[in-house]
């Protein structure tokens, strides 16, 4: 399942102890919400790729950018295609420099082993459960001189003791993926900006015999996307850390309770699949592509997957999910992998020039379907461009506190399980009470 590539859910990312766990990709930091990396075919289906610029970045004099560097990453899917193009474009800028692409499927494991042996690549993708960001100074070089200050998303997450040690390769957002033909068939002419408008659209779609929202209830993991809505409702990236300080965070009027109530409303009003217990992710992608299903709350990573399943980029849209009737749109955004430079690199000028090029000029973020890390860069992915045109407030999510992780693990908190129960249990309060008890019991035995 493609979801497994980056979902180890949204995720959001829970950073483990420095060398605990493993995974192929950096996680999306909202309750582990999924954000799988796009394949090359998916990327070309969903984006308009711009040719890399040929103006040399103002990092170091070209005469000092020379020699060979290595680049450790997880993008085996584009190792023979796009990555070769990026490296070739860098070579045009710096003819005396060479980049060896080291793309490995188990990159997180490799990174941990190399870090322990003090043998990191010159440039590496980092993030997820590979190591704690507070440990970056042990292994990586400060990159404050590359001119990213105030210009990139997730900057604060990589500043340790006042110095910047890594930069994001792009961001992932959760929103509503929709089929434009299904909308047109139901007479819907604009995307909703309030929750009532969203429900009204569902009613029009239902009246036309179109399933308004695919929840993938039985597959379960897609329900984790709705955890991101709790952050939108709270308008607070510290929501889960604050919940760890109280015994009963899950109430009807809490952010999580309101997010769950959206799911319950969809189920009660029959705006979901007819049979929740026979839903299937692969089938749902085809049904979204064909217009049998109209919408799904998913990450932007799903856009190319739906297009690959039988649709076209022109027929698939993406908008911020409204969570109330204020008209104010708020969306969590989580970073994919960060890029860092080994403090032991023998060709630091070349490594710095490559990182600056990769972030500012390569086009990697757009090719991968990400929100560009550079705030001033406009996305060339039509669906993300449309999403951003709605002018949502972006909440930069990051790792939760270690105490929060311990409480959550001890309570065996899993939002998809919570959501499944809440959607079908006759007594909703009983569901909230059960999860509050598990949470309170965990807090009794976990120490800060």
UniProtKB/TrEMBL annotation:
It comes from the Bacteria. Residues 1-20 form the signal peptide. It comes from Paenibacillus psychroresistens. Coiled coil: none annotated. It holds the Pfam family SBP_bac_1. Keywords: Cell membrane, Lipoprotein, Membrane, Palmitate, Signal. The lineage of its organism: Bacteria, Bacillati, Bacillota, Bacilli, Bacillales. This is Extracellular solute-binding protein. InterPro entries: Bact_solute-bd_prot1, SBP.
